[in-house]
Write a structure and sequence with these properties.
Strands 3-2-4-5-6-7 form a six-stranded mixed β-sheet. Strands 1-8 form a two-stranded antiparallel sheet. The longest helix is centred in the middle third of the chain and has 24 residues. The protein has 17 helices and eight strands. It is of the alpha+beta class. The chain has two domains: about 120 residues, 60s Ribosomal Protein L30, Chain: A (2-Layer Sandwich); about 280 residues, 2-methylcitrate dehydratase PrpD, CATH 1.10.4100.
Length: about 400
C-alpha cells in the first residue's frame, strides 16, 4: 500500500476527486502542450460533469491549465468503464488541427489520479508499505513487536522528513478547525447555507456530560467541513468531503484532554495506515462506492486513532476501525445541488461522534471480534460497485433528487 504521505494531502476544497484531482490533471497536461497550441478543449465525463459545477470542477481545471483559450464540455451522459470520474484533454492549433492524441485522466479519489493505461500517478513519490491488508500488517507487528504507528515509521525512509510532514498535517488540521469556529459568513453556492460550527460550540458549553462532549466534537468536525465547503485549505483525511471527522476528533482530545502532540502525531499515523489500506483494497471515491468510501473510511480512521489515544490494544484498535465502517455500509453519496454541503457537513459532524462511540464500544470488550477490518472493506467495495449510479455522486438520486424537485417547484 502507499505511504500515508500520499493519503494526507494539503489543498483547497471542496472536493478531492472533483477539484483537487482535476486541477492536478490539468497541470500535468499543460506540461505536455506543444508550443503552437492555440486552443484546449476539456471534456468532463460522468460524475465529474454531473456534479462538477457544484464541486467547482471547471474552475479547478481552468486554474490548473492557466491557458486563455480553454473550452469546457460537460458530458454527464458518458461514463468510461474504468472509473466514473474521467477527464479528456485535447490540444488544437489555430487551424483546428489536433496536435497530440487526446489525454485521459481518471480522478480516483483523495486527489489521486490514474492515466488512460490505469497507471497510478502519485502526487508525491514515496516508498510505501509491503502489505495491503490490516491482517497482514497486524501479523507483521506482532511478529516484530511493533505498534501500528511504529509500523508506519519502520517503512518510511526518512524519519526526520516524516516528523515534519506529520507536524504540517496536524497544524493544518488544527488551524482549519480553529478558523472554522471563528467564521459565521454563509457558505458559497445556491443553498446559501449558514455556518453552524460556532453556535454548536456555544451550545455545547452550556451543557454538561456526554451531551456537551458530543456537541463539542461535532462542532470541531463541522468547523473543518465548513472550511472545506468554502474552498479553504484542508487535509484530505482521506478525502475533502470527509475531511472534518479525523481533525474534529483529534482537536477534541488536544483541546480538552491535554493529549501531548507526540501522541496526536502517532494517532495520525495509525489513522493513515487504516486509510491507506482502504485505498489499496477498495476505494475512497464517492463516485465509485458512495459516501461509505469517504465518510465510512474517515470514521474508521478516527475510531482507530481514538482507540489508540485511549490506550487500546491492537485488537481493540482494529475492532474500532471495523465498527466504524460496518455500520456505514451502503451510505450513498447524494450531494444536494452537487455542493459538498448537504448532507456532507452534517455527516462529518455526526461521523466524529460515531468514531468516538465505535472506539468506546471496542475498548469495553477484549478486542475479539468476528468480522475483520479487511472483511468489511471488501464488502464496502462490493456494495459500492452494486450501488446504482444515481447514488454515487451524480446528484441524480436520494436527497439530491428530492431537494432539486422541491426547489424547482417553488
Amino acid at each position: 500500500m502507499n505511504s500515508i504521505r500520499v493519503l494526507y494531502k494539503k489543498g483547497c476544497g471542496p472536493s478531492s476527486s472533483h477539484s483537487m484531482g482535476p486541477k492536478r490533471a490539468a497541470a500535468l497536461f499543460k506540461e505536455t502542450l506543444p508550443e503552437n497550441t492555440s486552443k484546449i478543449v476539456v471534456e468532463l465525463l460522468g460524475s465529474l460533469a454531473l456534479t462538477g459545477k457544484g464541486h467547482l470542477t471547471d474552475r479547478a481545471v481552468l486554474e490548473g491549465l492557466d491557458f486563455p483559450n480553454t473550452e469546457i464540455k460537460w458530458r454527464g451522459e458518458t461514463f468510461l468503464p474504468h472509473h466514473p470520474n474521467a477527464l479528456v484533454f485535447h490540444a488544437y492549433d489555430k487551424e483546428g488541427k489536433e496536435l497530440v492524441p487526446p489525454k485521459t485522466f481518471y480522478s480516483v479519489g483523495g486527489g489521486d489520479l490514474e492515466d488512460e493505461k490505469e497507471n497510478f500517478l502519485p502526487s508525491v513519490i514515496k516508498s510505501g508499505y509491503p502489505h495491503d491488508s490490516i491482517t497482514e500488517v497486524t501479523e507483521f507487528c506482532r511478529k516484530y513487536n511493533l505498534t501500528y504507528y511504529e509500523y508506519v515509521a519502520h517503512f518510511e525512509n526518512d524519519a526526520n522528513g516524516l516528523e515534519a510532514f506529520l507536524n504540517d498535517v496536524w497544524q493544518t488540521m488544527k488551524g482549519c478547525v480553529e478558523e472554522g469556529l471563528k467564521r459565521d459568513d454563509p457558505l458559497p453556492g445556491d443553498l446559501k447555507l449558514a455556518r453552524r460550527a460556532h453556535k454548536l460550540r456555544e451550545k455545547a458549553n452550556e451543557r454538561i456530560g456526554i451531551v456537551r462532549d458530543m456537541n463539542l466534537v461535532s462542532a470541531y468536525a463541522q468547523a473543518a467541513s465548513e472550511q472545506n465547503a468554502s474552498g479553504a485549505n484542508i487535509i484530505t483525511s482521506p478525502t475533502c468531503g470527509s475531511c472534518g471527522i479525523l481533525p474534529g476528533v483529534l482537536y477534541y482530545f488536544h483541546r480538552h484532554y491535554n493529549i501531548p502532540e507526540e501522541n496526536i502525531l502517532h494517532a495520525i499515523m495509525t489513522a493513515g495506515l487504516f486509510g491507506c489500506s482502504v485505498v489499496a483494497r477498495a476505494s475512497i471515491s464517492g463516485s465509485q462506492v458512495g459516501c461509505q468510501g469517504e465518510v465510512g473510511t474517515a470514521i474508521s480512521m478516527a475510531a482507530a486513532a481514538t482507540a489508540q489515544l485511549w490506550g487500546g490494544s491492537m485488537s481493540q484498535i482494529e475492532y474500532a476501525a471495523e465498527i466504524g465502517m460496518e455500520h456505514t455500509l451502503g451510505l450513498t453519496c447524494d450531494p444536494v445541488f452537487g455542493l459538498v454541503q448537504v448532507p456532507c457537513i452534517e455527516r462529518n459532524a455526526l461521523g466524529a461522534v460515531r468514531a468516538l462511540s465505535a472506539a468506546s464500544y471496542s475498548l469495553a470488550t477484549d478486542g475479539m471480534h468476528l468480522v475483520r477490518f479487511d472483511d468489511v472493506i471488501d464488502v464496502m467495495y462490493a456494495t459500492g460497485i452494486d450501488m446504482q449510479s444515481k447514488y454515487r455522486e451524480t446528484a441524480q438520486g436520494g436527497l439530491a433528487k428530492i431537494m432539486r424537485e422541491r426547489f424547482n417547484n417553488r
